[in-house]
Amino acid sequence: MSISIDALEFLRLIEIRSIADEYLPLLKDPLKLSEKLSKKFNPLERNALIHYLEILPRIKEKFCLQNVDLICDRLAYEQATARDISEYKAKLWQSGAKIADLCCGMGGDSFWLPAGIVASGVDIAPERVLMFNENMERLGLPHRAVLRNALEIEGGDFFCIDPARRGGLNPDFESILELSKKFCGGMIKLPPAFPEGEIPKESDVLYLGNANDCRECLMMSGVFGKGKIRAVAICKNDIFEWQRKKNELQNIRLEVKKLGNFILEPNPVLVRSHLFLSEAKKLGFWQIDSTLAYVSCDSLPPRHDGFTAYGVIEQSSLSTNNVKAMLKKHDVGKITIKKRGVEVVPEAEIRRLAPKGEKEHILFYTRILGEKRAILAKRA
Question: In the sheet where 332-339 sits, what is the strand order?
Answer without folding.
Answer: 286-287, 295-297, 262-266, 307-316, 371-379, 359-368, 332-339
